[in-house]
Amino acid sequence: MAVNSVANVPQLLYANGQSPKIVAGSKDGVFVDFFGLYCKSSKRVRRRIGYAAANRRSLINNKWNAINAALDLERVATNASQQSSDIVPKVADLDDIISERGACGVGFIANLDNKASHGIVKDALVALGCMEHRGGCGADNDSGDGSGVMTSIPWDLVNDWAEKEGIAVFDKLHTGVGMIFLPKDCNQMNEAKKVISNIFNNEGLEVLGWRPVPVDSSVVGYNAKETMPNIQQVFVRIVKEENVDDIERELYICRKLIERAVNSEIWGNELYFCSLSNQTIVYKGMLRSEVLGRFYYDLQSELYTSPFAIYHRRFSTNTSPRWPLAQPMRFLGHNGEINTIQGNLNWMQSREASMKSTVWRDRENEIRPFGNPKASDSANLDSAAELLIRSGRAPEEALMILVPEAYQNHPTLTIKYPEVLDFYNYYKGQMEAWDGPALLLFSDGKTIGACLDRNGLRPARYWRTKDNVVYVASEVGVLPMDESKVTMKGRLGPGMMISVDLSSGQVFENTEVKKRVALSNPYGEWVKENLRSLKPVNFLSTTVMDSEIILRRQQ
């Protein structure tokens, strides 16, 4: 039997072009990355949990009584660990996890010439409207489970606002834009803005202005309006970095520091960053898909242009929807669920203390922890992808690590693409597969793509037209299309991926994507250098401990 040596295991996070360095989280806290899980209680708020769902949950609870005993490790870990923060890590609990899953409708549109237009945004909203049947609606028959779009930052729109406010035109390279859900209470909102501004200033970033995002609250359902946040954008100038990746990393650190700072505030769980980036922005909410464009006036403006758009309609399963749980997340739009989430979260926490990378410049403690059992499976997968990407990985590489295909004994890979097998073998001892069913759309603003997990149980169609536009959607027919203009079309099978390089206009289908990633480093050599064999030994023929004690120690 062969395993990766603990002492010499190649490490997960590294800067492009450098030898790998370990990067992992910490023991200093419950992940506050997705802390905006606020849902104001009200006697009139109804939960959409039916008889079948409630009974299924009851069965699951009964079935996992043994594992609940194993989770006593939480007390051991809490008592034994010396914490460097007031935030205490907790073992991922199954009850928390199963309450946040869903099945949704997703898609993206991308212009291969990288030409920004309002037409892309309009088409995304039309396609999103056609996904209404894939989403859920509240008991008031008006509050959606969630919908949203991710695009590039509409600089013409925000510069038009800045000019009217007497603010200088934004420097696109050095400006970050945050889309933020703030507390409903005005005093608490001002407190939150003060904390945000102070941390930006402490990090050497200049706050250029705050913009209340214009919305039409009349289209919001009753239940959604009860918890509707104040929605504002913040503009910050990053002067000490020149490289886009370094700028994005600095914004990521700032967001993490802000999340930590507000964690102890009474209004802390009402603050949530939909996005904070130099490249992308996310408009989303607890809305039906057909009203998203009416809710956000920005999306109606001809000044809102983008070369791409990811759209998402959420169907929330066994949970009361919340504004922050709408998608897209900061990197991903996810249709499906992650059925291995408990193990994924616990493994992420277990390696936090050992993970380091030169790109973080000894600031790893400030970006920990990396998972939150109270968040949705989609949010946690998004956070894991964000960590890998901000640590220097390409989005395609991050998704191949997190959601690998079924590569063992794969005849095509074995014969034609052994380097892809080397890649997967290199990482199999370092990252556990986040297994779906899952269709994932992703973008960092420079690349956009989609992948299907190895189960392949979520539909994904793609097509390309003569006018150099690529479409991916959960189903065909989301947009009127002249079939004579279609030059390429297909579907994603289990474990397959499609990727678009927005800067070069190239489309890479599954095999090309995997080859490019696998050939970026000598993974085969690294596997040979770091793989160690364990010699067989004489194990006990029978157990000598009580089964519950064994289970607890194994967990």
TrEMBL record:
This is glutamate synthase (ferredoxin). Pfam families: GATase_2. Residues 104-503 form the Glutamine amidotransferase type-2 domain. Its EC number is 1.4.7.1. InterPro entries: ET-N_metabolism_enzyme, GATase_2_dom, Ntn_hydrolases_N. SUPFAM superfamilies: N-terminal nucleophile aminohydrolases (Ntn hydrolases). The gene is GLU1_0. Belongs to the glutamate synthase family. GO terms for biological process: ammonia assimilation cycle; glutamate biosynthetic process. Keywords: 3Fe-4S, Amino-acid biosynthesis, Flavoprotein, FMN, Glutamate biosynthesis, Glutamine amidotransferase, Iron, Iron-sulfur, Metal-binding, Oxidoreductase. The keyword RNA-binding does not apply. Its cofactor is [3Fe-4S] cluster; FMN. GO terms for molecular function: 3 iron, 4 sulfur cluster binding; glutamate synthase (ferredoxin) activity; metal ion binding. Pathway: Nitrogen metabolism; Energy metabolism; nitrogen metabolism; Amino-acid biosynthesis; L-glutamate biosynthesis via GLT pathway; L-glutamate from 2-oxoglutarate and L-glutamine (ferredoxin route): step 1/1.
